[in-house]
Design a protein that fits this description.
3 domains; six-stranded mixed sheet; 6 strands
Length: 376
């Protein structure tokens, strides 16, 4: 492997490349190493008369060829890697032969077997390459849509199933991903999307899966592909948790549509985790509010509003009446009067940490919901 990376530039790029290309190269190295190890193991089996590992070796070699096609490269680099590999292998075989005193006849047979074996490996990679090239753009897109559905599937699909589908679709499996939710019927410039994205753009809930985080460069690229410049990015999570990232992205987009959150073009869920949590279950929130605010039920709506506003500001300022008055733009004496009413109504609840926390959460959620009639 070291000799291959040293002599062939295409396999040396991963060490210093940045961005998506660097990540793809880095993901490619373990697969190449695995293929080399399997090829060597199968060669040893073959000269000893066993064929047990041939099927695995054949698929790995075809996968290498498919990967070259999916990356838009020719087979020149892979063929050069095979040539380098056989040269290194023969030098080591010849060294072992000399140490063991093998006859020229045996060494000649080994050389014939080794070079014929490398030709066989190269032929398998050509098969994989041609298979991949024979796919139309629509067929490849369908393979990637199936892969995306598999990744988001619940119960979760196995890592083996995802790896197999990813190899067929020509997609390097990342450690982490970020889901992006798009509005229904969103216009997307497909040609402007990065090639390492998975996309489902049909149906009522179009979405994308981005390898790694949505950094500034990725955000700019995504917005360039979205003429309406609207969407929401979920939280960056390990690949098996991709469905959660998409769920949070969709909820973020819903809150943008409802006017609860500001539209930031590609609104990041990560900046609004508290809002997502507080508004995650409207029915449950109603139950908590009824329980915690029951003592205000006999008051008029105007009284309830004044006291809950005052209580919320007082809790957020950690009991500072002057700061509460400043926030509410009323006189401190007015705040003190309302606080006496609040203490009479809530009593011991205000002395208990759990109760104060519950009250503050309910009041914060209530303020968020009032921004949108659809969440009332």
């Amino acid at each position: 492997m070291k000799e291959v990376r040293r002599t062939i530039p295409e396999y040396a790029q991963g060490a210093g490349a940045d961005g998506a290309a660097g990540r793809a190269e880095a993901a490619e190295r373990p697969r190449l190493r695995l293929s080399v190890e399997q090829a060597l193991r199968t060669f040893v089996d073959q000269i000893s008369g066993s064929t047990d590992s041939r099927e695995r070796r054949d698929e790995l070699c075809r996968a290498l060829g498919r990967a070259e096609a999916y990356e838009g490269r020719s087979l020149d680099a892979l063929q050069a890697a095979y040539r380098t590999g056989v040269q290194v292998a023969w030098r080591r075989v010849a060294e072992v032969g000399r140490r063991q005193g093998l006859s020229p006849t045996v060494m000649s047979q080994l050389a014939d077997a080794l070079f014929a074996y490398i030709d066989e490996l190269a032929s398998l990679s050509v098969q994989g390459y041609m298979e991949a090239r024979s796919f139309s753009a629509d067929e490849r897109a369908e393979l990637r849509r199936r892969l995306l559905r598999l990744i988001l599937e619940r119960p979760k699909a196995s890592r083996t199933a995802i790896a197999r589908a990813a190899a067929e679709a020509g997609w390097s499996v990342p450690a982490e991903v970020t889901a992006v939710a798009l509005p229904a019927q969103a216009r997307v410039l497909r040609a402007a999307l990065d090639d390492d994205l998975l996309a489902e753009l049909g149906g009522g809930e179009p979405h994308l899966l981005v390898p790694g985080p949505v950094d500034a460069a990725r955000r700019a690229a995504l917005l360039a592909a979205l003429p309406e410049r609207r969407g929401a990015a979920g939280v960056t999570v390990p690949l098996p948790e991709a469905a959660d990232s998409l769920r949070w992205a969709r909820r973020t987009l819903d809150l943008v549509d409802a006017g609860v959150l500001d539209d930031e073009g590609l609104t990041p869920a990560e900046d609004h985790l508290l809002e997502l949590w507080l508004l995650a279950d409207g029915a449950l929130l109603d139950q908590v509010a009824r329980q915690r605010l029951a003592v205000l039920s006999r008051m008029s709506e105007t009284q309830r509003l004044r006291l809950t506003e005052t209580l919320g500001a007082w809790l957020e300022t950690q009991g500072n009446a002057v700061e509460t008055a400043r926030r509410l733009q009323v006189h401190p004496q007015t705040v003190r009067y309302r606080l006496r009413q609040i203490n009479e109504a809530f009593g011991d609840q205000l002395a208990e940490a759990d109760s104060r926390f519950a009250l503050e959460a309910v009041l914060r959620a209530g303020r968020l919901r009032r921004r949108s009639p659809s969440l009332q």
